[in-house]
Design brief:
single chain, mainly alpha, 6 helices, elongated
Length: about 110
C-alpha cells in the first residue's frame, strides 16, 4: 500500500519487488507500411514506455533510501560487509539490496 500511495506507478514497483526482478514491458511493434494513425499510436506508445521505465528506475533508486534505515544496526552492518555492497550502494539497486537482506536473514 505504501508503494502505491507514495510512488508514481507504485503498483508496478510493488509487482517487481514481489517478483524480485525488474520486468520491463515489451516494446510496441510498428507494422510494415503503417498508416499515419498507426505510426502516431506507436510513437506515443514508445514515448510512454520510455517514461514509465525511467519512472520505475527512479522509484527503485528512491526506495533504496527507504529500505536501508528500516534495517536495524546489526543488519546494516551485515549488509555493508557483503562483497557487492559498494556496487549496490553506488547504483542504489534496491532489488540487489533486498536480495542481500534476504540472504542474510535466511543465514540467521
Amino acid at each position: 500500500m505504501y508503494l502505491c500511495a507514495t510512488y508514481k506507478n507504485g503498483s508496478d514497483l510493488g509487482m517487481f519487488l514481489e517478483a524480485e526482478e525488474l520486468i520491463l514491458p515489451e516494446e510496441p511493434v510498428l507494422t510494415d507500411n503503417p498508416t499515419a494513425h498507426q505510426h502516431k499510436i506507436w510513437d506515443l506508445s514508445v514515448t510512454a514506455l520510455i517514461k514509465n521505465e525511467d519512472t520505475l528506475k527512479q522509484n527503485m533508486r528512491a526506495l533504496y533510501v527507504v529500505v536501508i534505515p528500516l534495517c536495524d544496526a546489526n543488519m546494516r552492518d551485515k549488509v555493508k560487509a557483503h562483497k557487492k555492497y559498494l556496487e549496490i550502494k553506488c547504483t542504489r539497486d534496491t532489488l540487489k539490496l533486498l536480495q542481500v537482506i534476504k540472504q542474510t536473514v535466511l543465514k540467521w
